[in-house]
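Project standup — Tuesday

K.O.: blocked on the structure for the chain from last sprint. Re-posting the sequence here as requested.
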Amino acid sequence: MTNNGINEIKARFDKVAAGWDSNPGRIELARAVGDAIRKAVPLRSDMNVMDFGAGTGLLTLALLPYVQSITAVDASGEMLRVLEQKLKSLGVNNVKTLQSDVRDLPAHESGYDLIVSSMVLHHIPDVFQALRQLRPCLQTNGQIALADLDTEDGTFHPDPTGVFHHGLDRSKVCEWLRNAGFVDLASHDAYNIKRPSAGGGTKQYGVFLITGRAN
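H.V.: unblocked you, prediction finished:
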C-alpha cells in the first residue's frame, strides 16, 4: 500500500473523528464486542492490553475496568485526540495513546498480555502481514481477540474509501493467525448490526470474534 493510500485513510478518519461517538450504533457495537471478549478471554486486573485501531476508545473504555492498563493505537491523530479528551475528563491515567500504523509499530511495543481490535481488519490491505507484525508485541502465551465483519456483499460501507475487504471469512482469518504463530483459535458470534435495506425491511451484518494464543 502506498503512502498516499495510507494518508487517504488517515484523512478520512481524521475528518469524522469529532462526531464518531454521536452514532449510538457504534457505542452499542463496542459494548457488545467488549462483552464478547470478556466471555471468551479470562481478563485479569494485572493485564497490559493493546487496542489496535482504537479510534476514539470505545472498546478501550469498555475493557478498562477489567485490566491493568491499555495502550490505544491508531493511525488517526484526530481519533486519538478525541480519546485523550475523554480520558482527561474522566481522570483516567492508565490508558496510553500511540499514533501508529501497524507497519510502523515501535520495537519496544512488546510484552503485552492481550491484543484486541474491533472493525479494523477490513481496513487493512494485507491482514496476514499485519498479524505477523502484531505477534511480536505479545509475550509468549499472550492472547489475541479480533472482532470484524463477516463476509458481506459490499453494501455495509456507503463510502468505500479505505475499505479493502467486504468483510472477512472466519476460516481465512484463523488460517492467517495460525500461520502468524497463534494457536488455540476459536470463532465466536459477537454481534449483529441491523440496518435498513435498499428494498425495504432490515439487513443484518454479522460480526465475529476470533480469539487465539501466541505460541
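K.O.: great, moving the ticket to review. The radius of gyration is 16 Å. Helices lie at 3-16, 24-40, 58-63, 77-90, 127-134, 170-179.
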